[in-house]
Amino acid sequence: MSISVIQHVLSRLHDIGVTDVFGVPGDYAFPVNDAICEFPGTRWIGCCNELNAAYAADGYARVKGIGALNTTYGVGELSALAGMAGAYAEHVPLFHLVGAPPIPLQSGRAIAHHTLGNGEYNLFQKMSEPLSCAMAVMTPQNVVSETERLIAAALYHRRPVYMAFPKDYVDQKALGAAQLVAAAQSDPEALVAATEAILAALAKANAACVLPGILIARAGLQSAMQAVIDASGLPFATMFMDKSVLEEQQPNYMGMYDGRLMNEDIREFVEGCDCVLQVGTLLTDLSTGAFTSKLDPAKTISISHHRTQVGGKSYSSVEMGDLLAALAKRLQKRNAPKTPQVSSLGPVVGKDADPITAAALYPRWANFLKPRDILVAETGTASTRTMPRSI
Fold first, then answer.
1. Dihedral sign for Cα atoms in the order 278, 280, 281, 284
2. pLDDT score of 356 more than 50
3. What CATH code is carried by the domain that includes residue 291?
4. Are 160 and 84 in contact (CB under 8 A)?
5. DSSP of 334-360, one letter per residue?
6. Ramachandran bin of 205, using left for φ above 0, alpha for ψ from -120 to 50, beta for the remaining angles
7. Are residues 109 and 224 in the same domain?
């Protein structure tokens, strides 16, 4: 049975877990809007504006692994850019489906609404280019191959992609047969070499720990990371951005490591280890305590999406999931070291009429949160007041 350009894209997005598309209707995007509403198993979720839609899709992707939003050309897509930038910065894969003017309008350089009045129709796409890991204008001829290319790019880089749908192409028949793109695989020799290097480094270390990072969650590798913790018995701490990547109600969890800004006992333990295994961490100013963390590069193993570094040597074409699986099979259980203990935010203090202070507020929040709650948080006074004045 033949399907249209947009139906093919929605079908493939549904295959990889996108069952909801956020957005705001617009005349260039009306055919896309209608197709989403009519597509079985997919919901259209209308938002107040495109920026809200981008942030909603971002939150959706953080929970489900991947998300999508739909905006109209020009004013709509520009309104969503700040949300797309945030997704790009934090490795959140989003599909931005943009309803574009019909091709005759574009090729004739017509001065139409939502344009800058100069006949240029690719300017807004260029504005999205730095915020996307891949882009395409979807046509009946290329929709099958380009959809697979963009899916592969989004999942490989864990960043947004941009798909433009000229209004007159949306409902045309998709041409060509689907050839699904295989997931990225490790180079076998590099995988073995990286595994052996990590095992050797850990074997020599008297004290070692793990800093599991946010990229573990972005790639859906929490179970693989937990298997490494279970197999090795290594203690772990988390930095700001990495909070709750792994279940924290377990003996191996020490608490939060944030350089010199908090938990001095944890800082001393982590920075005093002979080997620190960083897995999927992003060393931002907030996560490193305004760059006050002091991790010796010679003692730090860094595992990222597609590359691993051990003792100054880099191993490329090594996929994080493959490496974690290999380590979980080979690691030997270590004797549990004496580590710092997780501490609470303190007892609940203060009475109804007392001023609201941090000491009174934060312990109440900690007790208020329950398992499987979703907490939407932002940095602010709680962290910036502790930043050094030079930051």
1. positive
2. yes
3. 3.40.50.1220
4. yes
5. PPPP--PPP--S------TTS---HHH
6. beta
7. no
**pLDDT for res 390:** 42
60 lies in the same domain as 87: yes
Q: How far apart are CA 131 and CA 364, in angstroms?
A: 38
In the numeric block, which tokens belong to residue 357?
């202070």
Q: Which two tokens stand for residue 308?
A: 């691993």
Q: Find residue 135's DSSP bridge partners.
A: 162
Decide if pLDDT at 255 tops 80.
Answer: yes
Q: Which domain holds residue 127?
A: 5-166
Residues 91 and 9 reside in one and the same domain: yes
The residue written with tokens 């790009």 in the block is: 88
| Per-chain mean pLDDT for the chain | 92
Same-domain pairing of 15 and 149: yes
Instruction: Check the CA dihedral 67-71-77-80 and report its sign.
Output: negative
Q: Are residues 195 and 161 in the same domain?
A: no
DSSP structural state of residue 27: G
Q: Is residue 180 part of a domain?
A: no
In a domain, 313, yes or no: yes
Do 251 and 370 fall into the same domain?
no
Dist. CA 150–CA 160, nearest whole Å: 9
Are 134 and 68 within one domain? yes
Burial class, 141, CB count within 10 angstroms (exposed 0-12 / middle 13-18 / buried 19+):
middle
Vertex 28, ends 26 and 34: CA angle to 5°?
70
Tokens of 6: 């947009």
Strand positions, DSSP E, the chain: 20-23, 43-46, 67-72, 94-100, 134-137, 161-166, 208-212, 236-238, 253-256, 275-279, 300-303, 307-310, 313-316
Quick check: 42 pLDDT over 90?
yes
User: Is the residue at 178 inside a domain?
Assistant: no
d(CA 98, CA 14): 18
Shared domain for 278 and 352, answered yes or no, is no
CATH number at residue 66: 3.40.50.970
Task: Indicate the number of domains in the chain.
Answer: 3
pLDDT greater at residue 348 or residue 223: 223
- Average pLDDT, integer, range 240-253: 92
Closest CA to 247 of 263, 275, 223, 278: 223
| Side-chain half-sphere CA neighbours of 37 within 13 A | 10
